[in-house]
Design brief:
By secondary structure, the chain is an alpha+beta fold. The protein is about 45% helix and about 35% strand. The N and C termini lie far apart (about 50 Å).
Length: about 100
């Protein structure tokens, strides 16, 4: 079974993002919940339930958001590069096949 354990991010379909500690596939320990309206909550979770909330200073909330945005940009760029490489490889194979047919 593939369960989150350790540190990591998870984004729900509704746009919420959790960044923090995981144990056995559930939020467990300290983390941040980022909502679609860009508000950030810091808290402590146990077995997927928030048990304590902490005040989040605006500068910290902004830093968390910037970090998440940068991570999303990096992941998107990786996907774009992989697609480009795949397309280039396919075009190279096509060209090689065409050259092989000409030589034959």
């Amino acid at each position: 079974m593939d369960r989150k354990h350790g540190e990591g991010d998870y984004k729900w379909a509704d746009g919420r993002i959790y960044r923090g500690s995981w144990k056995d596939g559930k939020q467990h320990g300290d983390g941040y919940m980022i909502f679609p309206n860009r508000t950030v909550q810091k808290g402590t979770w146990e077995n997927g339930q928030k048990v304590e909330s902490h005040k989040v200073e605006p500068a910290l909330a902004e830093a968390v958001m910037i970090d998440l945005i940068e991570k999303e940009k990096y992941e998107a760029e990786k996907k774009i590069k992989a697609r480009r490489k795949k397309k280039e490889d396919e075009e190279k194979k096509k060209s090689e096949k065409k050259e092989a047919r000409k030589s034959a």
